[in-house]
Known about the structure:
This is Integrase catalytic domain-containing protein. The chain is α/β, with parallel strands linked by helices. It folds into 2 domains: 2-112, Nucleotidyltransferase, domain 5 (2-Layer Sandwich), CATH 3.30.420; 124-177. The chain has helices at 42-57, 69-79, 81-84, 102-112, 130-136, 153-167, 171-177; strands spanning 2-7, 19-25, 30-36, 62-65, 88-91. A 5-stranded mixed sheet has the order 3-2-1-4-5, with no helix packed on it. A hairpin with a 4-residue loop joins β2 and β3 (30-36). α1 (42-57) packs across α2 (69-79).
Amino acid sequence: xxxxxxxxxxxxxxxxxxxxxxxxxxxxxxxxxxxxxxxxxxxxxxxxxxxxxxxxxxxxxxxxxxxxxxxxxxxxxxxxxxxxxxxxxxxxxxxxxxxxxxxxxxxxxxxxxxxxxxxxxxxxxxxxxxxxxxxxxxxxxxxxxxxxxxxxxxxxxxxxxxxxxxxxxxxxxxxxxxxxxxxx
Length: 184
């Protein structure tokens, strides 16, 4: 389960970022703080989500956010709804954190100044131990994506879904891909 929220109203950084997107993975108990701009669209957030979260943790079972249904639909559209049809949406209340002291905001922003958006390197398959999987099932090699292939997010997610469907046949591979016993 993923919880998402935004810290807005921060002073602009050198790269014009003025908000922080907080993403908490409750299963792995990890938090990600991504610098964003308030002018980003839901599709921009979807691409960033795939680059920073899906490649590390896989597709979540559910996402909890305080954003409205319109944001959720745009976000899902940007991700490619095929893979994310099973996600559940739950509306929670308004944002509750508004720092009163401007100095407090500056101090918090300085602490998070080091958070840089990493470049998306490689394909999503490299992040789910493709080398181990191909060693166990060479027939999957036809789904390999060369680094020079220009694929958009939807095509990568379609290939990911095809790979996951192929892996469901083997219990050993399923354990490698989903160590907690949850279907992707």
